[in-house]
């Protein structure tokens, strides 16, 4: 037990420092990549009526006229003090801008993730229990086809069915224009109806992933000799399933879940664009298109932190499921 | 189990549904669809169209403008000013401010606010969008207005502006007036990041109620405004919908009440919608094919001017224009919602456009013979004309994500192939494209301009590239330069049109670029909105005059 605690502490410390290093390398790489990429972030702030000399002054005010190494040292100095700079586009500190968009992404990602995991696992258990049943056949035949539908097609199909054809759900937006005039429950309902289609289009491919992974892993475990041994020794089906098949089948699924959650937290760009939602995906892509250097770095850093954290949580869950991993370190 | 399910899930959902009924009476409001969020509402920095149209409802200037459709020009009228009186030599303007103007925080607007506004607009430290645009004022070396020479404060509500010459017009003073007291205490270099960019304290008919980033900007009636009236629209919502198709669905379904920039292919669908009214106005934006008139590399590296090896000859450029079937693009892609362009003066400027000029007809045969007369002949039989060992082949650059320009580029490629010119089309990401275009790094490109109101040709066609980088083609003509300078100095009103006529004739002759077409503006609005005037100044200008059915 002591050894396991030591192992966990060691992993935490090691992970913390490697994550910091990884993030640092990521943003340094990004800093130089942005500076050498074509395009001028100042162009849009310069009136075509200004002379090149005066336009140069505008550029200087962004600090982009300085040599690259000087810009880099200023960047690192600011970074150490927690100053990510001012977004060119929003004219606000980068962290303030990110905080405007991050909560929505966190909520959307968490809800979608919970639905993906919950539904995916439920379908895997149900079909495993009733192997060869109608649902099992249906899912095994059509799940890949559904998974293969690109997100934007799926989203447009959902909009067509529920908004255009049936006219029961709004086609886009986070909330309605009348939102401010609604009662508390009205606001909750408004959010619910607006987020139904985005959450569905974001979740359906994930549900299929978890269902497929878990279902196949459960089959693999089920066919292993130790399961046959347990069954032949009279262990009841519940114990075999919950204590042996599921924990062993879960391990690779948890790794996938860590990656998926990280991607979700980084922003669901296509869903956000199609449903006109104010999330991190749209923020990041707009920052890239507008060459908003400080904001691109800020968004990347936040996404990096979220992906690393999600993967770390996934690893902790794996350690919890399979304690041999801690001892082996 | 089933009972539990009903208790836990279905009943609360029903309760939620029935309790969410709107608890307010119908609000007097209009929803305007826009494609992207604005970055600031501070008139010092409002660069794009939407920023301008929203901030100008919050901040008014000393004068406003109306579109005079008969003359095809704008007419100015006093707005914050009650009276304007020019001196006989037109070098001084006496301004009496209205005495009923208050900022939205309750403070009175005074002549010191006016002085402060011109001070900061022209301050190089502030870097406002109006910087370097005060040539008719007395200026310091750094182009900051010399306030002591230019302004004379008479009282709290009257002042005199002294101009350095007699060419000043009311456009020189139409900038929105800013509240000095709100900017006090903020270092001028920090104006760009101050909270006033998002929390405006204005003097206009509307004030900011709420700004949800990437979602909507809500303006509400400013009851203190002298433009305010009981039956004006209470709330204007600028709804941000980036996806064009979503905007179209929403205006059809009533989620949006007013939408600009409708694509020609949607025109019929819009006309068919019973609840909508469609308005088509002559445009002030045109597409063109830019030909680099000069050797850009030589210019960039040594600031020397030498005609471009392919496009440096006006006869060749004329041939290129004749070889492009502009009507086909208008008919096929724009559904006829455009007019062939023959120069840089928009058809909206009825007084200034020279209708005596006829656009070059599509005539590939004539184009080919012009090229031959200029020595461009297919000597090696490879299908591409050549001269002095140089093949007439080039890359035509277009900004990415623009289907109209992609279509145009494809037609041009096919058209020029017919006369023995080899064109390859290359897309560039817009930011990169415009950076290259302004930096004179492209040989040939397709882009567009939205021409300013009032008409101003100098930044685009004057030959001093050091001062005007908008002249991306590197066009140079002494006659045009002279006429532009004379117009800038000021000419008699009756003779003004004649100057523009001559400039257009010369530019048409020189064909520095191939002017493609002026694109019509198609706007759609809900029939519930009354008293709306849509003209080249835009759709929401003077929206305080709108009424709802």
Q: What does this 3D model show about the protein?
A:
The complex is a heterodimer of chains A (329) and B (549). Chain A has helices spanning 2-36, 52-61, 68-80, 94-129, 134-148, 151-165, 184-222, 225-232, 237-265, 269-274, 280-289, 293-321, 324-328. Chain A has 13 helices and no strands. By secondary structure, chain A is mainly α. The mean pLDDT of chain A is 84. With 549 residues, chain B is α+β, with helices and mostly antiparallel strands. Chain B folds into three domains: 29-34 and 204-282 and 522-548, D-Maltodextrin-Binding Protein, domain 2 (3-Layer(aba) Sandwich), CATH 3.40.190.10; 60-189, Alpha-Beta Complex (Dipeptide-binding Protein, domain 1); 285-519, Dipeptide-binding Protein, Domain 3 (Dipeptide-binding Protein, domain 3). Helix content of chain B is 28%, strand content 22%. Chain B contains 16 helices and 23 strands. In chain B, the strands form six sheets. Chain B has a seven-stranded mixed beta sheet with strand order 8-9-10-1-11-21-12, sandwiched between helices. Chain B is globular, with a radius of gyration of 27 Å. Chains A and B meet through helix 2, helix 7 and helix 11 of A and helix 1, strand 10, helix 6 and helix 13 of B.
The counted number of beta strands of chain A is 0
- Percent strand of chain B equals 15-25%
- Bin the helical content of chain B: 25-40%
Major sheet of chain B, described briefly? 7 strands, mixed
Shape of chain A: globular
Q: Which range does the strand content of chain A fall in?
A: under 5%
Order of helices and strands of chain A: HHHHHHHHHHHHH
Distance between the termini of chain A: 14 Å
By DSSP, the count of extended strands of chain B is: 23
Query: What is the CATH architecture annotation of the largest domain in chain B?
Result: Roll
């Amino acid at each position: 037990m002591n050894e396991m605690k030591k192992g966990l502490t060691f992993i935490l410390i090691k992970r913390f420092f490697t994550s910091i290093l990884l993030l640092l390398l990521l943003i340094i790489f990004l800093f130089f990549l942005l500076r050498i990429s074509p395009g001028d972030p100042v162009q849009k702030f310069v009136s075509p009526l200004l002379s090149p000399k005066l336009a140069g002054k505008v550029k200087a005010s962004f600090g982009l006229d300085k040599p690259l190494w000087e810009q880099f040292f200023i960047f690192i100095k600011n970074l150490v003090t927690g100053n990510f700079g001012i977004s060119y586009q929003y004219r606000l500190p980068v962290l303030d801008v990110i905080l405007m968009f991050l909560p929505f992404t966190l909520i959307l990602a968490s809800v979608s993730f919970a639905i993906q995991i919950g539904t995916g696992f439920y379908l895997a258990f149900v079909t495993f229990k009733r192997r060869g049943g109608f649902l099992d056949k249906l899912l095994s035949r059509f799940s890949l086809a559904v998974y293969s539908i690109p997100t934007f097609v799926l989203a447009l199909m959902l909009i067509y069915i529920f908004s255009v054809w049936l006219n029961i759900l709004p086609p886009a937006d986070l909330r309605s224009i009348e939102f401010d005039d609604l009662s508390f429950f009205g606001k909750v309902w408004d959010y619910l109806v607006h987020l139904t289609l985005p959450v569905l289009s974001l979740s359906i491919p994930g549900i299929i992933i978890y269902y497929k992974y878990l279902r196949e892993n459960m089959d693999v475990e089920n066919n292993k000799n130790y399961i046959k041994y347990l069954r032949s020794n009279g262990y009841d089906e519940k114990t075999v399933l919950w204590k042996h098949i599921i924990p062993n089948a879960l391990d690779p699924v948890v790794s996938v879940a860590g990656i998926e959650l990280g991607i979700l937290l980084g922003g669901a760009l296509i869903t956000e664009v199609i449903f006109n939602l104010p999330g991190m995906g749209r923020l990041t892509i707009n920052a890239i298109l507008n060459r908003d250097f400080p904001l691109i770095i800020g968004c990347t850093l936040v996404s990096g932190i979220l992906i690393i954290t999600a993967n770390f949580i996934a690893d902790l869950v794996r350690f919890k499921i399979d304690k041999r991993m801690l001892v082996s370190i | 189990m089933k009972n539990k399910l009903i208790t836990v899930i279905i009943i609360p959902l029903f309760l939620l549904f029935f309790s969410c009924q709107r608890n307010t009476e119908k609000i007097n409001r209009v929803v305007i669809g826009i494609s992207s969020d604005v970055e600031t509402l501070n008139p010092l920095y409002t660069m794009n169209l939407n920023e301008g149209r929203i901030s100008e409802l919050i901040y008014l200037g000393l004068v406003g403008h109306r579109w005079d459709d008969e003359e095809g020009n704008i007419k100015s009228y006093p707005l914050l000013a009650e009276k304007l009186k020019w001196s006989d030599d037109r070098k001084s303007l006496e301004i009496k401010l209205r005495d009923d103007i208050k900022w939205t925080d309750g403070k009175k607007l005074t002549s010191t606010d006016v002085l402060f506004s011109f001070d900061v607009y022209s301050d190089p430290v502030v870097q406002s969008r109006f910087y370097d645009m005060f040539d008719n004022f007395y200026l310091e070396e750094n182009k900051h207005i010399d306030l002591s020479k230019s302004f004379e404060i008479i009282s709290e509500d009257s002042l005199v502006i002294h101009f350095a010459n007699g060419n000043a017009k009311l456009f020189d003073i139409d900038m929105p007036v800013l509240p000095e007291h709100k900017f006090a205490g903020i270092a001028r270099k920090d104006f760009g990041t101050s909270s006033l960019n998002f929390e405006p304290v204005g003097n206009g008919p509307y004030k900011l109620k709420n700004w949800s980033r990437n979602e909507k900007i809500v303006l509400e009636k400013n009851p203190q405004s002298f433009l305010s009236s009981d039956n004006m629209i209470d709330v204007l919502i600028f709804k941000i919908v980036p996806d064009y198709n979503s905007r179209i669905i929403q205006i059809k379904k009533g989620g949006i009440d007013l939408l600009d920039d409708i694509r020609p292919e949607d025109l019929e669908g819009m006309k068919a919608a019973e609840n909508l009214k469609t308005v088509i106005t002559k445009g002030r934006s045109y597409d063109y094919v830019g030909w680099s008139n000069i050797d850009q590399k030589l210019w960039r590296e040594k600031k020397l001017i030498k005609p471009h090896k392919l496009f440096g000859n006006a006869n060749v450029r004329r041939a290129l224009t004749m070889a492009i079937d502009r009507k086909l693009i208008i008919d096929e892609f724009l559904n006829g919602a455009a007019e062939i362009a023959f120069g840089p003066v928009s058809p909206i400027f009825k007084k200034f456009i020279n209708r005596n000029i006829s656009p070059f007809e599509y005539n590939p045969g004539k184009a080919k013979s012009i090229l031959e007369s200029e020595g461009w002949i297919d000597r090696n039989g490879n299908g591409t004309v050549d001269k002095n060992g140089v093949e007439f082949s080039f890359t035509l650059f277009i900004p990415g994500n623009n289907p109209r320009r992609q279509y145009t580029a494809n037609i041009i490629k096919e058209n020029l192939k017919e006369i023995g010119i080899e064109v390859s089309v290359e897309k560039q990401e817009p930011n990169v494209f415009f950076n290259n275009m302004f930096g004179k790094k492209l040989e040939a490109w397709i882009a567009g301009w939205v021409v300013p109101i009032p008409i101003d040709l100098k930044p685009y066609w004057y030959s001093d590239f050091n001062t005007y980088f908008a002249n991306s083609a590197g066009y140079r003509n002494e006659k045009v330069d002279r006429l532009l300078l004379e117009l800038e100095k000021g000419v008699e009103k009756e003779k003004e049109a004649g100057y523009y006529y001559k400039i257009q004739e010369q530019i048409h002759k020189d064909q520095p670029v191939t002017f493609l077409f002026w694109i019509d503006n198609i706007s759609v609005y809900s029939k519930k909105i009354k008293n709306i005037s849509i003209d080249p100044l835009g759709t929401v200008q003077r929206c305080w005059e709108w009424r709802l059915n």
